[in-house]
């Protein structure tokens, strides 16, 4: 049995926990702020196929009593020196190349104000690991490291882990082309999950941008189609889909007048423009109202729409049944994911 944890977007912890629980040899043991704690009794390579998480780590333990005072840096160095990371390095080495001895990086983040910085946390942790692991070299640049040590500090507790993969799972290889407002793939995957998209479902994104939502829906086996009024966005979306090996039909259109038959779509997943990162040459409230009318028209009688928006009041005004909404943390803001049905 191997203990591991995943890092996810605030507000999507339950979605990531549900995806982890779908793995036949994994068992979720707890969820916390931005984390899912679990155990795996089978091959660990299956964990690298998780889509709704930012990253996955071998669980190397919990540190307690980390105060906001600078004396904590000494405690972090001492605790890091007590880590025994050879087993984790060996596990990672069964999945990807790891040098012996390895180079390692440290990633740290914390909740709330402290009298020390993340860079100071990294250096203290690195000093402790080097003291107890002869020959291990610290790499400030994660891209130059064989292993990544992660400290996730919440209040006075730190979750400590070793990244299972060579790079963060959120860094999808296909996401080479970006446009303003483009979604992070794990958030897009969570939206596709909430929509219930899957095999034999026809999924639409009327404002597709760089295509991330549709590519993640296609990974779930859906028949994906979408469009945008921006030619540059469509070119980016097609390039990303090609890189991903995903079959997605893209069209240039006006989302307020979709060339799609009524009641012909099983799921709608979308992140409409809201006038900050993406400008709209129309009154935004009117644009949302027209978009909502079109989504209702094309959605099947049993269909579901999941919308990520910074203007929830405009989406809740659509003539659709409210199912759920949840606030998440994204780009330093708190947008809402709203689930609607016919």
Describe this structure in words.
The relative contact order is 0.11. The chain has two domains: 162 residues, VC0802-like (2-Layer Sandwich); 157 residues, Vaccinia Virus protein VP39 (Rossmann fold, 3-Layer(aba) Sandwich), CATH 3.40.50.150. The longest helix is centred in the middle third of the chain and has 15 residues. The radius of gyration is 22 Å and the shape is elongated. The mean pLDDT is 95. The chain is an alpha/beta fold. It has nine helices and 15 strands. Strand 9, helix 6 and strand 10 form a beta-alpha-beta unit. The termini are far apart. An eight-stranded mixed sheet has the order 2-3-1-4-8-7-5-6. Helix 2 packs parallel to helix 4 and helix 5 crosses helix 6.
Task: Report strand order across the widest sheet.
Answer: 2-3-1-4-8-7-5-6
As residue ranges, the low-confidence spans are none
* Gross morphology: elongated
What is CATH's topology name of the largest domain?
Answer: VC0802-like
Number of strands: 15
Structural class by sheet pairing and helices: alpha/beta
List the secondary-structure elements in sequence, H or E: EHEEEHHEHEEEHEHEHEEHEHEE
> Span between N and C termini?
44 Å
Round the Cα radius of gyration to an integer and report it: 22 Å
In percent terms, what proportion of residues is strand?
25-35%
Integer count of domains: 2
Helix content: 25-40%
Please count the helical segments.
9
The average pLDDT value, as a whole number, equals 95
CATH class of the largest domain: Alpha Beta
CATH architecture of the largest domain: 2-Layer Sandwich
**How many strands, what sense, and barrel or not for the largest sheet?**
8 strands, mixed
């Amino acid at each position: 049995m191997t203990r591991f944890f995943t890092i996810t977007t605030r507000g999507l912890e339950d979605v990531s926990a549900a995806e982890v629980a779908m793995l036949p040899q994994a068992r979720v043991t707890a969820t916390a702020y931005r984390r899912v704690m679990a155990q795996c009794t089978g091959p660990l390579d299956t964990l690298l196929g998780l889509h709704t998480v930012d990253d996955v780590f071998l669980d190397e333990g919990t540190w307690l009593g980390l105060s906001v005072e600078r004396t904590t840096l000494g405690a972090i160095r001492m605790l890091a020196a007590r880590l025994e990371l050879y087993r984790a390095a060996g596990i990672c080495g069964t999945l990807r190349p790891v040098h012996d001895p390895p180079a390692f990086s440290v990633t740290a983040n914390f909740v709330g104000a402290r009298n020390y910085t993340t860079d100071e946390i990294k250096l203290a942790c690195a000093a402790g690991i080097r003291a107890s692991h002869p020959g291990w070299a610290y790499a400030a640049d994660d891209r130059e490291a064989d292993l990544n040590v992660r400290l996730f500090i919440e209040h006075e507790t730190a979750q400590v882990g070793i990244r299972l993969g060579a790079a963060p799972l959120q860094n999808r290889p296909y996401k080479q082309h970006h446009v303003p407002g483009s979604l992070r793939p794990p958030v897009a995957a969570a939206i596709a999950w909430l929509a219930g998209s899957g095999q034999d479902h026809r999924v639409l994104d009327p404002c597709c941008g760089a295509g991330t939502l549709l590519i993640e829906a296609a990974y779930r086996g859906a028949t994906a189609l979408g469009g945008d009024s921006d030619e540059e966005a469509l070119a980016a979306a097609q390039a990303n889909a090609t890189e991903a090996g995903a079959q997605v039909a893209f069209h240039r259109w006006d989302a307020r007048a979709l060339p799609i038959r009524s009641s012909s779509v099983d799921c709608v997943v979308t992140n409409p423009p809201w006038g900050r990162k993406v400008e709209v040459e129309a009154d935004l409230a009117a644009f949302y109202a027209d978009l909502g009318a079109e989504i209702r028209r094309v959605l099947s009688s049993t269909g579901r729409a999941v919308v990520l928006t910074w203007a929830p009041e405009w989406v809740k005004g659509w003539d659709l049944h409210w199912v759920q909404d949840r606030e998440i943390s994204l780009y330093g803001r708190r947008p809402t994911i709203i689930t609607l049905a016919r």
